Amino acid sequence: MSVTQPAPEVVAATPLVASTEAAATPLVANTAAAPPAAAPPPPPALTPPSGEAFPSLEALRLPQTFAQLQVKVVTTHIPVTRPHKQWFVRAHRELAIAIAVLELKDERELYLVAPELRDVLASECQVRLLVPAITRQGVLFLWPLRVPGEDGKLDSWSSSAHEAMARAKDVWLRMESNMALGAYQWTEAVADLGEPSWPELDLMTMLRVAFKGRLIAALDHPVLRKLRGEV
Hints:
Layout: H1 16-33, H2 57-60, E1 89-91, E2 97-104, E3 109-113, E4 126-135, E5 140-146, H3 156-167, E6 173-178, E7 183-188, H4 203-210, E8 215-216, H5 222-227
Parallel strand pairs: 3-8
Antiparallel strand pairs: 1-4, 2-3, 2-4, 4-5, 6-7
């Protein structure tokens, strides 16, 4: 017996063109309706606020007359000491003064004795010749030198220091002690180091600065009371 097969069902295909056009339509509409992109913000202004420490390059630039900005250096401390062995020094050709001083050996300090107390403190006083001197770095100091005694003589240390000081008026030199020799010796600079630049100070001003706080002008001075055993 033969069986009759049913005929296959035919489904009509949907046109592709129509669906493509329908889908594309909204995209065109959305693109046309989108707002334009916002412009990027401008860079921050280069002009600083009022009172700014760095107003501009031109304001910071030094003028050609830079020398007008220089100031005068004020000398507030002048050591009273002999030259360190590593210092190249020069001595002043004209300025020098012999004064009465009281030396505290333990503290390695010199005190200036007022003229009215020289006779009273004759047993404690010593005479020193102070000569302004200067290092290559421009450090001003007062070079104390012993003076001859009543017999007119000086020990080898003192006499050699005087010789070095006299030579330092003309050349840069470095003075150091020679224990075997029992005297000072010095080395002179080979190169031409030029002339020293002396500060504009007179000798009285140098003394005031050097002995600031170290002037003995009264018998109740703490140094004298210490020597008398009162403190």
